[in-house]
Amino acid sequence: MTYFIVGTLLLFFMLFLAAFSIWNVYAIIRGAPFVPSAKKRVQTMISIANLQKTDVLLDLGSGDGRIVRRVAPFVKNARGIEINPSLALLSKVFNTLQHKKNVEIRCADFWHYDLSDVDVLFVYCIDHKMNRLEAKVKKEMKPGARVVSNGFKFSTWKPREEKDGVRLYLL
Ligand SMILES: C[S@@+](CC[C@H](N)C(=O)[O-])C[C@H]1O[C@@H](n2cnc3c(N)ncnc32)[C@H](O)[C@@H]1O
């Protein structure tokens, strides 16, 4: 019986890993691979963003959802959009287990997501996608909105503030 349970769990884990890896390749093509932000970086992103209780925040490529769960107490609505279904599912499980109410995860491609009602955009993307992202952000986001980028910078857009590898941009 024990062997059966352990075997079943192992099988589920391996299936999850296989699905994760295949989707991660697709994520690399469409954006960036899954590399979770370090705790300290997330803290810097939160402090530089000056989050308000009225803010709608979107984590672009939300991974395992750690950022949306972390920022949820400080904003009206914390959203994540994630292309990898394994990660989106994992985020939803964590959110349910932690009873997160104002958190939303959508499994979709962020290039097709309309950013017009987003007040704060959290980004941890990759260098060669930043120009395309800058064009999308400037076309869709409203004046006064903030973009907080972990690690990577926009090539011509000057940040309003910069701290420990995190940059704040103002629309
Ligand atoms: C560098 S990780 C950042 C994860 C999370 N934001 C964090 O900071 O911990 C980038 C994430 O974006 C996702 N991703 C890549 N391209 C995407 C796309 N076009 N649409 C939605 N998600 C995407 C990846 O699957 C990955 O989880």
Automatic annotation (TrEMBL):
It comes from the Bacteria. CDD domains: AdoMet_MTases. One of its GO terms (biological process) is methylation. GO terms for molecular function: protein-lysine N-methyltransferase activity. InterPro entries: FAM173A/B, SAM-dependent_MTases_sf. The keyword S-adenosyl-L-methionine applies. Keywords: Methyltransferase, S-adenosyl-L-methionine, Transferase. This is Uncharacterized protein. It comes from Candidatus Magasanikbacteria bacterium CG_4_10_14_0_2_um_filter_41_31.
